[in-house]
User: Which sequence fits this backbone?
């Protein structure tokens, strides 16, 4: 029985790690701009698809990965520059529709530039699973979890130890005060989109051998990542990681012990419960209503 | 105020006139079909506009109410043999009660949290519709029995056109009345500043709940009409993208403009038909149009264009 | 406000009128119009894409050979994706505006079911490429279909299991219409064919991992075989998770997995998966005496020559649909809708890609279990099981 | 002149908040602007620091027209503002708040050299790892001033530094300001507490109904009958 539980946990953590990586992207962007970027899932797709197509074109895998991430980061920058910046000062609904427009556009673009089929990458270190106490985990899952751990450490270092990271946090806490100490908040916003795109693309590449990749792969991942960020508390990247793992594990346990048919509803039920009873998220800071 | 009443009467007259004239321009049944879909979408948007435009509350889950109304009508007429009018009203009642129950906790949320709350609610409804195969037919959907009003079965797109046109007209009248009522004024103060409205003694949550329920019921009724008209229903009518579509129609037409909601519905219903010619590039164009309008016409088409017209005195 | 509204309405009018301009004008030597609506984009594009390519390929071919009844064929296509509502709108457009002579297509069961009422009312012959049995069972006067049903597929799978002495089955299915219909058939047929379903699991849209569900199946009491009902990326994910958990039971998929993408996407995990498929998939392995060999090889050659990509069995549905329609029009000697319908129903011993079709007044599919072959994935390719 | 404001105007939407404001601040001076609540004092500060756009007139700093310059670029030129209500990065530590003050200075040895600040405000050294939001009002004001000084400004803008502080802390804060002025920092001070402000200022302006009316040295203004009646409550 405990082996079964462990198996569910492995599944939950693998999936949760993906949600977490996407969720962190949401948080980073929300932090510096109060924009919920509904195109976050598309960065995941770009990372995966670009890697697949580059390596199919004969580019060695490591180089393909670097180029794919680079492409995603550039697109992240362009999205900010061409769609978000011109809309400065728009209302929440407008921004939601703009980012949804970006998401539709990027998916359409992917269908034209790449194709409409699903593709897989070979697992990075073989397909032989590892057995732990009667449960098994693929080496690719370890890559994903490792990716999350490294991302967490790097982000922690970035936000707590570097001046740019601190400037980014400062911008999220108080935009005007940030300008008054000389922080270019517009740059910070661009940077946040680039970081989000980077994280999205990396997770897209890491999961391609597990989940495969296709033009619409980002849709559901984006929504779940949004859940992760929201459960943790919007605007706190570390909380988004906790939120992602929580949602992933809750889904796996529901599928395992309750009903696999309603597994997908779990993330959203958690969201509603959290919103109703802890409106600023499990680990979020209280938000003051602006007059 | 007098001015407004005049403008409103003229607006209604124009709406009635254009709905009366439109059939003269429509060559075939396919054109009627588009017009009917515009009408059905517009009913949802007129209601949603009260919520988004006047009460300032986003909902990314209204397709859930639309689909619930549609499925209630379908299931009650199909499996239980209820008369379609009764089934339609029962669906509206169900959605009314449900939206009333969820309204309070959901509407306490603000901004993105509200968006997420309504999105979650809509997705849960959509998952239920997909999973309860025995009840709803699952993802492949189910056929809908014909609409029968006191023994008369409307057949053909021209008849449906008039049914939907009348329903839309009534919706617009109801919406305009709400906007002009004391509730409506309270609503507008809401949008301005909630704290200010709070200190003025307006029970903001109560009004928001009321509007939420009204808009949900309008969506439900439109959903019932849609189900009977199209004759076939699938859960995609209640999914996230459909909710987004409704919100986009409202925002595109112009928030806090009842006629804008109608125009927004018209444009976004016709748009895919035009974009169909672009085949591979359809999705890209669609995304670009959404972005472009939201960036360059923030207030939506109707307010922006009327702003331009006002600026240059002609 | 008022004038503004009027202006907007006026602005709208040309747009609506423009939609009308495309309406066809009647003429004497006009082409035979074949209407189609397919899921060329969206999640079911793996169906619609090869279907559309096949139709375009063969319509051109027929036209360059002189057309049908001395008239050219004209394909009128709309991308309805997998959306029932788009399908309804586009079929109305095909019937009322484009005034097509026959409708073929509808890549999915959902889009097909959505338009049945319309084609029945308009009394126009309609050949669907949708999978589920409900399309032609119960029978509808104007509706036909070419793909094998999921019922046939499950029958074929259960027969194969029985042959191997496997009777305890765990089913896993997705959230899509195909999945749910296949699962339902697996349940109802289990009774009549002496199988027992000992586990019944499902997963959601866009899921990236199904190990919890497979763990439950693995641990189900007395389990001997697993049947997966689904298609697309999920097929590969299920196979990978199956391998990850080191499951030893027999591994069956539905014909939804019958594409090269499945094997490639599974990164080796597809080895040993058995599934029913159209003969097309293993055309070169068929005995030369098999009457289907020539037809399937010819289709395969033509498709690969034109598009330089591997064939899929889904394109085959489109080939059969188009050919059945064209043959019926030839036999009817006109495009009179009632006559064409009657001739489609009289289709007999048509050797298609999907099988040998013999339709009747009670059977609008005309295929049986024999049209399927069982294949197994071996060394990264399909191996015909005899 | 270090700072020269000529016939400046600014508005919020359609409401005009400022018109015809003229102010000069020379290097090394401590100049104050007094006026009633809502006279537009904070708006002037925001226009000088670039948070708010001017709708007319000009702002010149060290001979350069900066009216249209972005706020963060003005910091690089040497304008630092201690905003009204302090506006600290409350969840971050005192240390980080102060360091961010030096954001525009790229020279390596000043990366985050806080010795001077801690010398000036020893209490902050004790609190350096505490989140800024947990400090008392007076301590927060010190952090705000310290953060602004970290940029080594040529001109320090102080917006209502006494607001919300107890009388004892107000005295402390003004002592600090005086000390800074003595050390040679050019200061432009906006205060509601006109008496305190004028008593330490070299020169002063009075802002009424959105434009500057009276100006003179601190002592002149303190003895001006109109100022006395209106602002000093004498």
Assistant:
């Amino acid at each position: 029985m405990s082996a079964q539980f462990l198996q569910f946990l492995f599944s939950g953590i693998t999936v949760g790690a993906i949600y977490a990586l996407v969720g962190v992207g949401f948080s980073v962007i929300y932090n510096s701009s109060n924009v919920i970027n509904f195109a976050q899932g598309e960065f995941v797709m770009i990372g995966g698809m670009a890697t697949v197509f580059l390596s199919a074109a004969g580019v060695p895998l490591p180089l393909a990965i670097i180029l794919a991430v680079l492409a995603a980061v550039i697109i992240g920058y362009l999205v900010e520059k061409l769609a978000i910046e011109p809309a400065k000062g728009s209302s929440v609904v407008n921004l939601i529709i703009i980012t949804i427009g970006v998401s539709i556009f990027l998916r359409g673009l992917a269908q034209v530039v790449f194709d409409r089929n699903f593709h897989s990458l070979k697992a990075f270190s073989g397909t032989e699973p590892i057995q732990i106490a009667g449960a098994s985990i693929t080496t690719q899952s370890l890559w994903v979890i490792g990716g999350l751990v490294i991302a967490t450490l790097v982000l922690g270092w970035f936000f707590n130890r570097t001046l740019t990271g601190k400037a980014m946090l400062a911008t999220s806490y108080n935009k005007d005060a940030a300008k008054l100490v000389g922080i270019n908040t517009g740059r910070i916003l661009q940077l946040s989109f680039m970081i989000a795109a980077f994280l999205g693309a990396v997770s897209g590449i890491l999961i391609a051998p597990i989940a495969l990749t296709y033009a619409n792969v980002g849709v559901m991942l984006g929504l779940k990542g949004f859940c992760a960020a929201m459960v943790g508390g919007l605007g706190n990247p570390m909380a988004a990681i906790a939120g992602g793992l929580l949602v992933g594990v809750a889904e796996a346990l529901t599928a395992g012990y309750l009903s696999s048919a309603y597994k997908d509803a779990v993330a959203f039920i958690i969201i509603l419960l959290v919103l109703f009873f802890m409106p600023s998220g499990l680990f979020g800071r209280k938000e003051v209503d602006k007059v | 105020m007098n001015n407004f009443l005049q403008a409103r009467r003229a607006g209604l007259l124009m709406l009635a006139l254009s709905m009366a004239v439109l059939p003269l321009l429509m060559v075939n049944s396919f054109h009627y079909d588009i017009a009917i879909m515009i009408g059905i979408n517009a009913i949802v948007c007129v209601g949603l506009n009260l919520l988004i435009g006047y009460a300032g509350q986003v909902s990314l889950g209204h397709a859930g109410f639309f689909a619930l109304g549609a499925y209630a009508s379908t299931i009650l007429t199909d499996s239980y043999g209820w008369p379609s009018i009764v089934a339609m009203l029962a669906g509206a009642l169900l959605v009314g009660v449900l939206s009333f129950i969820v309204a309070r906790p959901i509407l306490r949320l603000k901004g993105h949290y509200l968006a997420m709350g309504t999105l979650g609610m809509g997705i849960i409804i959509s998952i239920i519709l997909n999973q309860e195969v025995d009840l709803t037919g699952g993802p492949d959907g189910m056929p809908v029995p014909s609409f029968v009003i006191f023994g008369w079965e409307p057949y053909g797109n021209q008849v449906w056109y008039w049914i939907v046109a009348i329903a839309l007209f009534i919706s617009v009248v109801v919406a305009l009345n709400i906007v002009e009522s004391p509730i409506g004024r309270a609503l507008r103060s809401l949008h301005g500043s909630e704290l200010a409205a709070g200190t003025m003694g307006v029970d903001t949550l109560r009004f928001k709940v009321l509007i939420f329920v009204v808009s949900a019921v309008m969506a439900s009724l439109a959903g019932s009409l849609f189900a009977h008209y199209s004759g076939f229903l699938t859960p995609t009518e209640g999914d996230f993208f459909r909710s987004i579509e409704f919100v986009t129609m409202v925002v595109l037409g112009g928030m806090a403009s009842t006629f804008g909601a109608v125009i927004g519905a018209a444009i976004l219903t016709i748009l895919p038909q035009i974009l169909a010619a672009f085949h591979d590039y359809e999705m890209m164009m669609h995304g670009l149009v959404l972005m472009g309008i939201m960036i360059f016409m923030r207030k939506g088409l109707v307010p922006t264009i009327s702003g331009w017209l006002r600026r240059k005195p002609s | 406000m008022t004038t503004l509204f009027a202006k907007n309405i006026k602005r709208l009018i040309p747009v609506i009128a423009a939609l009308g301009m495309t309406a066809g004008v009647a003429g004497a030597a006009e082409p035979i119009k074949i209407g189609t609506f397919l899921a060329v984009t969206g999640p079911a594009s793996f169906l619609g894409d090869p279907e559309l390519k096949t139709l375009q390929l063969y319509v051109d071919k027929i036209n360059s050979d002189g057309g049908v009844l001395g008239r050219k064929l004209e394909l009128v296509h709309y991308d309805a994706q997998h959306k029932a509502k788009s399908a309804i709108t586009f079929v109305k457009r095909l019937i009322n505006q484009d005034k097509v002579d026959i409708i073929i297509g509808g890549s999915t069961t959902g889009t097909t079911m959505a338009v049945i009422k319309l084609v029945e009312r308009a009394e126009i012959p309609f050949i669907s490429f949708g999978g589920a049995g409900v399309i032609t069972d119960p029978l509808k006067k104007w509706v036909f279909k070419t793909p094998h049903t999921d019922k046939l597929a499950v029958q074929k799978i259960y027969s194969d299991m029985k042959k191997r002495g496997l009777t305890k089955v765990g089913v896993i299915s997705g959230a899509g219409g195909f999945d749910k219909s296949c699962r339902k058939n697996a349940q109802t047929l289990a009774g009549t064919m002496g199988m027992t379903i000992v586990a019944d699991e499902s997963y959601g849209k866009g899921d990236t991992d199904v190990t919890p569900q497979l763990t439950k199946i693995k641990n189900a009491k007395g389990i001997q075989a697993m049947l997966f009902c689904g298609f697309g990326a999920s097929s590969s994910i299920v196979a990978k998770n199956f391998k990850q958990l080191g499951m030893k039971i027999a591994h069956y998929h539905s014909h939804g997995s019958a594409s090269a993408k499945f094997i490639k996407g599974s990164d080796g995990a597809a080895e040993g998966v058995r599934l029913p498929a159209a003969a097309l998939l293993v055309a070169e392995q068929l005995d030369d005496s098999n009457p289907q060999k020539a037809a399937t090889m010819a289709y395969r050659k033509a498709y690969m020559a034109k598009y330089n990509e591997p064939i899929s069995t889904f394109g085959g549905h489109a080939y059969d649909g188009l050919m059945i329609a064209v043959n019926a029009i030839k036999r009817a000697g006109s495009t009179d809708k009632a006559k064409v319908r009657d001739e489609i129903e009289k289709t007999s011993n048509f050797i298609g890609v999907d099988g040998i079709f013999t339709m009747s007044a009670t059977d609008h599919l005309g295929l049986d279990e024999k049209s399927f072959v069982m294949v197994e994935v071996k060394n990264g390719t399909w191996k015909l099981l005899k | 002149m270090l700072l020269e404001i000529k016939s400046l105007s600014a508005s919020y939407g359609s409401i005009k908040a400022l018109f015809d404001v003229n102010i000069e601040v020379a290097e090394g001076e401590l100049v104050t602007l007094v006026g009633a609540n809502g006279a537009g004092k904070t708006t002037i500060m925001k226009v000088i620091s670039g948070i708010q756009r001017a709708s007319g007139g000009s702002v010149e700093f060290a001979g350069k027209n900066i009216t249209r310059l972005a706020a963060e670029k003005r910091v690089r030129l040497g304008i630092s503002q201690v905003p009204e209500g302090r506006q600290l990065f409350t969840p971050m530590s005192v240390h980080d708040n102060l360091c961010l003050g030096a954001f525009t200075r790229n020279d390596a040895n000043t990366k985050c050299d806080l010795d001077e600040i801690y010398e000036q405000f020893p209490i902050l050294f004790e609190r350096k790892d505490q989140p800024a939001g947990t400090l008392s009002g007076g301590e927060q004001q010190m952090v705000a001033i310290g953060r602004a000084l970290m940029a080594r400004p040529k001109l320090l803008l102080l917006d209502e530094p006494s607001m919300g502080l107890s009388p004892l802390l107000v005295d402390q804060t003004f002592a600090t300001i005086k000390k800074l002025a003595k050390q040679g920092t050019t200061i432009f001070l906006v205060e509601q507490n006109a008496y305190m402000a004028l008593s330490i200022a070299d020169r002063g302006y009075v802002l009424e109904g959105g434009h500057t009316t009276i100006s003179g040295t601190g002592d002149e203004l303190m003895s001006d009958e109109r100022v006395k009646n209106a602002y000093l409550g004498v």
